[in-house]
Amino acid sequence: MNNHEVSRTTRLSTAAMIVLAGILIVMAAAPWWAGRADLRLFGEIFLYLSLASLWNLLAGYAGLVSVGQQAYVGFGGYVLFALTMLAGISPLAALPIVMVLGGLIAVPVAALLFRLRGAYFAIGTWVMAEVFRLSAAQITVMGGGSGTSLPASIVKSMADGRSAREALAYWLALGVAVLVLGTVYLFLRSRQGVALMALRDNELAAKSLGIDIWRSKFVVYVVTGALTTLVGALIFMQKLRISPDAAFSTNDWTAFVIFIVVIGGIGTVEGPIIGTLVYFALRETLADLGSVYLIALGAVAILIMLKAPRGLWGLIRGTRGIELFPLSRRVRATTNKDT
Amino acid sequence: MTPILELRGLQKAFGAVTVADSQSWALAPGEALGVLGPNGAGKTSMFNLVTGTLPADGGQILLNGRDIMPWPAARRCRAGIARSFQVPQPFGGMTIFENTFVAATQGARLSGSAAEDLCLDVLNRTSLLPKANVLAGGLTLLERKRLELARAMCAQPSVILLDEIAGGLTEHECKSLIETIMGLRETGVSIVWIEHVVHALLAVVDRLLVIDFGKKIAEGEPEAIMQSPEVREIYLGIEADV
């Protein structure tokens, strides 16, 4: 008999899960202990964490370097506004519909973009996002190029009173962050996740071992598209106002997100979490400096790329392969009872 | 009996260079076929054509009597064709165990625990178990070659294509490799083995196929083939291995 077994957890990862559960409970109670401005900031952090984790899955694991995910953020915002304003659906009920529609629109987009590879794919995603932006500017019922605001009656229908509404928006942001991180983590732990990491390492060997590369990437692209659309809906539910330039902003929904993932550590579950914290720490301390803030971000990005090309988590993890969210499968010798 | 794998007039050329010239042969279920030929004869290209990583220009490839020519590489693997690469192609960022786990879950379509058991068993048989947690990117060439074999075995193929896995092994390592492949044969897997280490090949195979310039130039009993003038001419330079 084989006296070995496969283990998927370490003492560190178990401890990390307990700490994470603790943080989650504290953060879920934030509406009772945090001020309004802080609550808003936390909500924004969770939404950026979601965007970063999704982009990381797409680029860091599936090798689909998209610079056009703002297409889905904006699409989510616009569809949410349209469903509530034009179809009279309540914002909460609209959210799952928005997500499904995001997944559906990703199908033809993927079929088109997957004809392109590498840098051409990246440019293709950008062009696609521009198509989305220009199309949104043509919709006159949504205010065309100048955009529109969510009517007060719809805003009031979400919850009674401003503080209850803000708490609701916050919980939704927290909920979507948990949903996204959970989905990404469970997906990467599954057989499909292993297949994804394999094809990232070596496409020739991957297809020779039975991995349908096109299908694997397609699934990731569509799931990422659906969840990014949901995050987009929440972003604009919180902003209460939408315009094509804000909804499909390359800077806000792609450049900052790439910054977060790359400085945190691309291709790791932990990287986007660390990157998000660093990004917001920089933003909150430097935002008053105006454009100097963007220069500082650029300097940080250059410094980290020079000193830690695998990001901050890559630096912390070192060569020992520490994982807070264990994806690897370790073979361990069991105590031998045969002898 | 229907051959497990059959090539009918397989054709492939890169410009003026023909790598498969109307190649036809068949492999019986459970049979082990050795492939000989000088460097550049089209042996590895033939594997690429059979596994679907290289599109053929013409002819037929039949697996259990079914034409698999239109199938992409992944489907051919799932249908039962697995290979090892002459130049190892590991998943460098994954451990040895995870490399085999990919083959077991994707190629063999096994579920989690069944896949784990298969991988541990194969790693044990290929003496890779002590290194199961080592990243494949950091392995020596010999370990990479062994991983190629282990990974192909974990796809649970009905036909396994082995591409020069004995090169560079010590006498002792070669013996244990032969034992591993004999063990594989006993499980009923059909084998096509390209190898320059002729004595290793002769210890295992039932039949030999000789290829040059993409063309089949001889096929038959190993003893008869090794005596034939064509093979002697081709192998004059590397006869020292016999």
Please give a structural write-up:
The complex is a heterodimer of chains A (339) and B (242). The mean pLDDT of chain A is 92. Chain A has 339 residues and is mostly helical. Chain A is globular, with a radius of gyration of 21 Å. Chain A has 16 helices and 4 strands. Chain A has a domain at 13-246. Chain A has helices at 11-28, 30-33, 36-61, 70-85, 91-113, 118-137, 152-158, 162-189, 191-201, 203-208, 213-239, 244-247, 250-264, 270-286, 292-307, 311-317, and strands spanning 4-7, 148-149, 241-242, 330-333. Helices cover 38% and strands 24% of the residues of chain B. Chain B has 9 helices and 10 strands. Chain B has a 6-stranded mixed β-sheet, with helices on both faces. In chain B, helix 4 (112-125) crosses helix 5 (141-154) and helix 6 (171-186) runs parallel beside helix 7. Chain B is globular and about 45 Å long. The two termini of chain B are 33 Å apart. The chains are: A mainly alpha (339), B alpha/beta (242). The A-B interface holds A 2, 4, 6, 191, 194-195, 197-198, 200-202, 204-213, 328-331 and B 51-53, 72-75, 77-78, 82-83, 85, 89-95, 97-99, 101-103, 105-109, 112, 115-117, 120-121, 123-124, 129, 132-133, 151, 155. Chain B: This is Lipopolysaccharide export system ATP-binding protein LptB. Chain B: Residues 5-238 form the ABC transporter domain. Chain B: One of its GO terms (biological process) is L-alanine transport.
Supply database-style keywords.
heterodimer, A: 339 residues, mainly alpha, two-stranded antiparallel sheet, B: 242 residues, alpha/beta, Rossmann fold, six-stranded mixed beta sheet, four-stranded antiparallel beta sheet, 9 helices, 38% helix, ATP-binding (chain B), L-phenylalanine transmembrane transporter activity (chain B), hydrolase (chain B), Lipopolysaccharide export system ATP-binding protein LptB (chain B)
